[in-house]
Amino acid sequence: MVLKLTENELRHIFDVMENIAIKNKAPVFNLNFLKTPFQHLVFTVLSSRTRDEVTAEACKRLLSKAGSPEELEKLSVEEIEKLIRGVGFYRVKAKRLKDLSKEIKKLGGVPDTYEELIKLPGVGRKTANVVLASAFGKNAIGVDTHVHRIANRLGIVSTKSNSETEEELKKIIPKDLWIKVNKAMVGFGQTVCKPQNPLCDNCPFKSFCHYSNFNKAHKPR
Ligand code: SF4
């Protein structure tokens, strides 16, 4: 059964997640080196299926050589591969970044609407929403594995895919909060509600969290 929470309870949960993530120095709150929408886009493309610390290091290496679409387009795919080696699917991503740079140069900048963003090569739903929120300050919910996992563990949704989670979260979370959902949940997932061995004993949500209560009820006595 899905947990029904009031608007105020949801606001409180995201505030608490954000505070915990900041206090625990979650990597997602340490991205001040990203200065432009293009750099946010590059980071988000690199981040899929890659540990956050590895993404940050690879992104810094790449941006130190090429921080704009014009500069990145001038690099060969092999040069990009070398700079981002370590991230998941780095060969595919190197080619994708080169294509993206070309397209963005043509457009004169990173578009700031969902419809235009998802037309870019290799940009899907999650990347478009994360960029809208992080680079343009727009109300969008980027759902990655952290967001999907935590929303289902808590029991605020009961979904099978990231896109289903996005749709359900949009129904229950007040629109002005959307912008902070991804960062708060990713940071909380990096530091407390980890994919393996979540730190439930120290979690402020353990009294109502479905996952924690299920595990407690099924613990061998
Ligand atoms: S109680 Fe455990 S599973 Fe539930 S949100 Fe907290 S850390 Fe995650």
Describe this structure in words.
Helices cover 60% and strands 0% of the residues. The radius of gyration is 18 Å and the shape is elongated. It is built from twelve helices and no strands. The protein starts with 6 loop residues before the first helix and ends with a helix. It has 221 residues and is mainly alpha-helical. It folds into two domains: 7-25 and 140-217, Helix-hairpin-Helix base-excision DNA repair enzymes (C-terminal) (Endonuclease Iii, domain 2); 29-136, Hypothetical protein, domain 2 (Endonuclease III, domain 1, Orthogonal Bundle), CATH 1.10.340.30. Helix 2 runs antiparallel to helix 8. The structure holds iron/sulfur cluster. Residues 150, 153-154, 192-193, 198-200, 203, 205-206, 209, 211-212 line the site of iron/sulfur cluster.
The SSE string, one letter per element, is HHHHHHHHHHHH
Distinct bound molecules: iron/sulfur cluster
**Proportion of strand residues:** under 5%
What is the CATH third-level topology name of the largest domain? Endonuclease III, domain 1
Helix proportion of residues, in percent? 55-70%
| Strand segment tally | 0
CATH architecture of the largest domain: Orthogonal Bundle
